[in-house]
C-alpha cells in the first residue's frame, strides 16, 4: 500500500512528507507518508514503504541517542507498550495499516532552524566550494575533492521555510534568533548526536556524510523533534564503495536528486514524475539503509 495523504481528525500540520494530528493530552500523532520531496518541492510520485522506513528509523535513532539529549518520542503507534499509557480510544480512529508508520510524540515549541551538520564535502557544500572555495561562507583550503572528510564536523544551519527553499544562516543569525546560549546548545547537541551516529553507522558499513536535525522546547528544555538520521534527512554512503573525488554510492534520496538534475528540471514546481525504475531503486535504497543500520528487515 502506498500512503500519500492521511485523513484523520484534528489535523495539526501537513508538511512535505508528514501529516501530524493533535490527539490531546499534549500529544501529537506524526504519520510519515510515502511522499518524497527534493530541492524543497514535493514530487508527484510517491515511494512505496518510504514512510514506514522514515518513522521506524527515526524511532530507532531517538532511542539510541536519548542519553545525549531527550526527544519527543513516546512510542510507535503500533507498540504494545503504548497500551495503557494513553487515554482509552485516543488512537481508535487510526487505521491499523497506518499505525506502523506513526509516532506518538510530545508536543513541543519548534525552533525554526534547520540544524545541518556536515562531516564530508558533498551536496550544496561541494557546489559552493567548487564555485567559491568556501563552505557556508567560510574559506577552505584549495584542492579539496568531492566526498573528502572534514577534520571536524561543520555546523551549517539554515532557515526552516514552510514554503520555498531554506536559506543559509550564519551562527550569528542563529544567536540573534534564539539567544547565544540556546544557539550554542543547538550547535553542540547537533554535533554530538552526529558524532555518535556516525561512529555507530560505520560499524554497520554506512558513512553518514551529513544530516539535519530539528529541535524544540518542552517545558523550557531543549529536545530533538521531527525525524532523526533518516535517508530523507541524511546522506548515507556505502562504506565499501567510498572513494573521494566522485559521487558516492548511496542509500538515500540523492539518487532521486541526481535523476532530477539530469532531467533538466529547474527545481521549481511542478516537479516531473519519477520513472518506475527510479522509484524501485529508491525504495530498495531506503529499505537497505534501514536493514543495515537497525539489523532488521522490513517486509
Protein topology:
Blueprint: E1 11-14, E2 18-24, E3 27-32, E4 37-38, E5 41-42, H1 50-64, E6 73-76, E7 102-106, E8 109-110, E9 113-120, H2 123-132, E10 134-135, E11 138-139, E12 149-155, E13 158-159, H3 171-178, H4 180-203, E14 206-218, E15 221-225, E16 234-238, H5 254-263, H6 276-294
Antiparallel strand pairs: 1-2, 2-3, 3-7, 4-5, 6-7, 8-14, 9-12, 9-13, 9-14, 10-11, 14-15, 14-16
Helix pairs in contact: 1-6, 3-4
Radius of gyration of CA atoms, rounded to a whole number: 19 Å
Order of helices and strands: EEEEEHEEEEHEEEEHHEEEHH
Largest sheet: 7 strands, antiparallel
Under the CATH scheme, the architecture of the largest domain is 2-Layer Sandwich
Distance between termini? 12 Å
Q: Strand content of the residues, in percent?
A: 25-35%
Number of helices: 6
What does this structure look like?
It is a single chain. The strands form 4 sheets. Strands 8, 9, 12, 13, 14, 15 and 16 form a 7-stranded antiparallel sheet that branches. The chain has a 5-stranded antiparallel sheet with strand order 1-2-3-7-6. Helix 1 packs parallel to helix 6 (276-294) and helix 3 crosses helix 4. The protein folds into 2 domains: 11-107, 2-Layer Sandwich (Phosphorylase Kinase, domain 1), CATH 3.30.200.20; 110-252, ATP-grasp fold, B domain (D-amino Acid Aminotransferase, Chain A, domain 1, 2-Layer Sandwich), CATH 3.30.470.20. The protein starts with 10 loop residues before the first strand and ends in a 5-residue tail after the last helix. Helix content is 29%, strand content 25%. The protein has helices spanning 50-64, 123-132, 171-178, 180-203, 254-263, 276-294; strands at residues 11-14, 18-24, 27-32, 37-38, 41-42, 73-76, 102-106, 109-110, 113-120, 134-135, 138-139, 149-155, 158-159, 206-218, 221-225, 234-238. The protein is of the alpha+beta class. The chain contains 6 helices and 16 strands. The longest helix is centred in the middle third of the chain and has 24 residues, at 180-203. The protein is globular, with a radius of gyration of 19 Å.
Amino acid at each position: 500500500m502506498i500512503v500519500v495523504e492521511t485523513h484523520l481528525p484534528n489535523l495539526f500540520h501537513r508538511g512535505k512528507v508528514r501529516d501530524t494530528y493533535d490527539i490531546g493530552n499534549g500529544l501529537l500523532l506524526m504519520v510519515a507518508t510515502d511522499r518524497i520531496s527534493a530541492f524543497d518541492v514535493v514530487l508527484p510520485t510517491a515511494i512505496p514503504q518510504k514512510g514506514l522506513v522514515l518513522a521506524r528509523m527515526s524511532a530507532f535513532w531517538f532511542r539510541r541517542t536519548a542519553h545525549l539529549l531527550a526527544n519527543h518520542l513516546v512510542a510507535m503507534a503500533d507498540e504494545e507498550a503504548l497500551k495503557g499509557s494513553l487515554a482509552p480510544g485516543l488512537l481508535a480512529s487510526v487505521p491499523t495499516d497506518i499505525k506502523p508508520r506513526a509516532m506518538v510524540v510530545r508536543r513541543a515549541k519548534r525552533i525554526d532552524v534547520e540544524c545541518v551538520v556536515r562531516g564530508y564535502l558533498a551536496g550544496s557544500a561541494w557546489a559552493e566550494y567548487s564555485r567559491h572555495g568556501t563552505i557556508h561562507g567560510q574559506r577552505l583550503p584549495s584542492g579539496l575533492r568531492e566526498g573528502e572528510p572534514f577534520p571536524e564536523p561543520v555546523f551549517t544551519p539554515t532557515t526552516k521555510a514552510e514554503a520555498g527553499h531554506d536559506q543559509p544562516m550564519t551562527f550569528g543569525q542563529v544567536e540573534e534568533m534564539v539567544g547565544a546560549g540556546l544557539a550554542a546548545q543547538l550547535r553542540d547537541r547537533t554535533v554530538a548526536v552526529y558524532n555518535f551516529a556516525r561512529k555507530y553507522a560505520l560499524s554497520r558499513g554506512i558513512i553518514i556524510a551529513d544530516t539535519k536535525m530539528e529541535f524544540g522546547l518542552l517545558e523550557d528544555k531543549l529536545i530533538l523533534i521531527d525525524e532523526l538520521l533518516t535517508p530523507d534527512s541524511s546522506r548515507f554512503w556505502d562504506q565499501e564503495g567510498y572513494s573521494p573525488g566522485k559521487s558516492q554510492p548511496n542509500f538515500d534520496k540523492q539518487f532521486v536528486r541526481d535523476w532530477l538534475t539530469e532531467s533538466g528540471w529547474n527545481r521549481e514546481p511542478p516537479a516531473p514524475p519519477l520513472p518506475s525504475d527510479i522509484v524501485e531503486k529508491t525504495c530498495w535504497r531506503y529499505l537497505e539503509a534501514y536493514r543495515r543500520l537497525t539489523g532488521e528487515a522490513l517486509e
